[in-house]
Amino acid sequence: MSASAENYTGDFLTNGIGARALGLGGAYVSIADDATATYWNPAGIAGIDQKYQVSLMHAARRSGLGSFSNVSGISKIIPHLTIGLSWISAGIDDIPIYYDVPAFDINISAEQRKNDPKFRPREQDFIPAGYLNDSENAYVLSLASGFTISQSWWDNFGRDSIPPEFLFGINTKVIFQSFNGVGELDETTSQFANYGSSGYGFDAGMLVRLPDLNAIFGLENVGGFAFGFNLQDISQTTLTWNTVPAQKESIPSNTNIGLTYFTNLLFNRELIVSYQWQARYGGQTHLGIEYELTPQLALRTGLRDSRFTSGIGIQLKQFRLDYALLIGDLINTHFLSVLWAF
């Protein structure tokens, strides 16, 4: 397999999860403050205040031909250790198979089709011999911890300030891909239609939050910063297919670096501006802006490389409902998710 093709191995894992993060253009590695941090930056789950969080997301992609879903949950098992579990699933059902139809042979010229009826497509040529279902799944286990500089030591700077927070996390993930055939398939097509692959990989992340700039720069009431780093698929993740001989594909390592600024300067409502750069696919830039109109309503917009994103968040007691729209080259994708904190 060529290097250019191999770069798209495990491509479903590059979509991202959670409508809030996706509405922000995927610039989330330095925010990562909810259960979806199991994907964006596992370090972030250590900074969640609630003991439990559960996130559910679903999207219909490619005009309904494909689907993309996620379930993530986190729990503080002891005061300084948080565990997270996540399932990420993508699939396309009912992909038609047209097996060995002579009329579709690319070597038949237009002149042959015109002059010889046997080279022209027949009605039965457009009836699929069967269908393929593509299923891709990843199961992720996250562990994270962190520490905050003691307030008494931080007060040595002589200003009223909240001390910074340092968070660290790791992921272990198992990935499964399969092509399963259904319908009236012949022996050759059936063998092709039941291939699968599996593999495992690791991620590591770090998140540093500086809630204000009072102590270091003497700037009061201007907001704070957060810096995030996530290295995905350390040493590459290899997927092995059940072919004879076995074929292997590698998911390349991907570095994500992000910086977030947050402030209440604008009409005393929270404003978040986030930037992220990722190394995969030759380097991509992500930008996101979130503004809290009210404590219950937030508006979002962003850029995912060159594609425009937008979204909205509604807080209802312990539930947050999020919607995101991703503008694509050919079609648009709508994402819906709900976050439950308790």
The backbone outline, from C-alpha atoms, is elongated
CATH class: Mainly Beta
Q: What structural class results from the helix and strand content?
A: mainly beta
Largest sheet: 14 strands, antiparallel, barrel
Q: Averaged pLDDT, please? A: 88
Which topology does CATH recognise? Porin
Distance between the termini: 47 Å
User: What is the annotated CATH architecture?
Assistant: Beta Barrel
Compile the SSE list and pairings.
Layout (H helix, E strand, L loop, with lengths): L2 H4 L12 H5 L13 H4 L11 E10 L4 E13 L2 E17 L12 H6 L14 E19 L2 H4 L10 E18 L4 H6 L2 E16 L3 H4 L6 E9 L4 E5 L6 E4 L2 E10 L7 E8 L5 E11 L2 E8 L2 E10 L2 E9 L4 E10 L1
Summarize the structure in words:
The protein contains seven helices and 16 strands. Helices cover 10% and strands 52% of the residues. A hairpin with a 2-residue loop joins strand 12 and strand 13. It has a 14-stranded antiparallel β-barrel. The longest helix is centred in the N-terminal third of the chain and has 6 residues, at 110-115. It is mainly β.
Features:
7 helices; disordered N terminus; Porin; mainly beta
Short description:
The chain is mainly beta.
